[in-house]
Amino acid sequence: EPEVTQTPSHQVTQMGQEVILRCVPISNHLYFYWYRQILGQKVEFLVSFYNNEISEKSEIFDDQFSVERPDGSNFTLKIRSTKLEDSAMYFCASSDYSTGELFFGEGSRLTVL
Amino acid sequence: LAKTTQPISMDSYEGQEVNITCSHNNIATNDYITWYQQFPSQGPRFIIQGYKTKVTNEVASLFIPADRKSSTLSLPRVSLSDTAVYYCLVGDTGRRALTFGSGTRLQVQP
Lengths: 113, 110
Known about the structure:
By secondary structure, chain A is mainly beta. Chain A has strands at 5-7, 10-13, 19-24, 31-37, 44-50, 53-57, 65-68, 75-79, 88-95, 103-104, 108-112.
């Protein structure tokens, strides 16, 4: 069964450092998403991406965040200068049509010290 | 985006049927209703999706009344492995993002 894969599974970084989280969506999917979940809290939407551009973003997705689909297979989330409050599990998801289900990856746990 | 309201938690026993109701009073005409399941430290997993009436798959049923202002996820004969958080989402996926609410934490006991 096709799946969304994410790397790294866990990253520890110092405050102020740049972090890139990588995702490989399911190959025929056209819509891509990043969500995050702070420990013990709900899943929060960050950004959606379609046709090589951002479709929607939340207020969490400020200038410190960016997304890119550099090579037609990977979908990355960059945090330019991490803060302590960026510590969370980051989930990538993809879907294949406008009312289709979201397929989530297993997540990348980011710990900012 | 339509806001959803669901119970914070529910308890059940193995073998029982569990019904989790979600209210979404301002659902839009183009919105679908989707339920996801999440285990600790894992990504949410799709359970079922519907637009109106009743939908059934191998793991659950989804009941949607005619006014579509609420929906009920029905899990037949739950087991311990069904202990998870269940999220009701309403929206038109694709270009519009789905927003997760607080979810319902289901605890199944032996």
